[in-house]
Amino acid sequence: MSADANAPVTSGGMAVTSGNIADYIGFSRRLWVGYALALLIAAGLGASSFWIEDTRNGIALPAWCYAVTELTSVVMLFILTPLLLRWTAKLDPARLGWPRTVAGHLFGFALGSAAHIAGMAALRYLIFPLFGQDYGFGRPGQLGLQLLYEARKDAAIYIGMVALIWLAAAARRRMTVIVQEKIVEKPVPAASAARLELRDGATRSFVDPAEILWVEAAGNYVELHLGTRSLLHRQTLASLEDDLAAQGFVRIHRSRLVNRAQVRSVASQSSGDFTVTLSDGRQIAGSRRWRQSLDL
Description:
Residues about 1-25, about 175-185 and about 185-195 have low confidence and may be disordered. By secondary structure, the protein is an alpha+beta fold. The chain is elongated and about 85 Å long. Strand 5 (about 220-225) and strand 6 (about 230-235) form a beta hairpin. It is built from seven helices and eleven strands. The two termini are about 45 Å apart.
């Protein structure tokens, strides 16, 4: 399960690429922590259920056996989840059609299940000896049956997770309100004829502010993004904001300025944050604190 991540890099916020399911879901660090906790809870419930059932039948193993067995499974599931997100994003039925999408998911399931089974078995072979026990994958002579048992569980997990990814992506899109090309309705101050002088040691560059799409803080420097290149300039973002205010530049994030004349659309999110699409198609994230700077 693999796919290229098609997201522009922006510091201090989430980059969004239109059509990418993984981005539409908006997996933040907090959500990943919650997901990890949910897997741990599921592992605890599974381990205790198997232990209770075996105790009832008089064949209970030490409690750590059940804990290790379930934890190694969810650890591998957590590791493989980002790959599943990207793989699901790549398999877009609207673009590929359902036959190719289904075929892609069958391949993804086979590869993912093999990685899940191999990974958790390897972890168990490493961990069990720490408790003075040897691990055996299934009963002797029943390797095929054990693999079928694990693959059957993986199939249910795979289908459920893909369905949840699609549902989450659809919900995210419904919550996003896109303002199409209306920013131009608000007058933008005319660009000054004066060029911006950038110094880098003994080198001086002169840039027309109208050519700058957006500016980003980079430590003690600012990075100016033009259509085909980027330039570093030693100046604080706040100072440059004052210099470029008359040229129609506004702050959309604590670390970003944008040229309003280059803005083509704004997509607002339920959190209050927003995404700006520029004239060259690039998308950058804005913070709700500065949303009013782009209000119509």
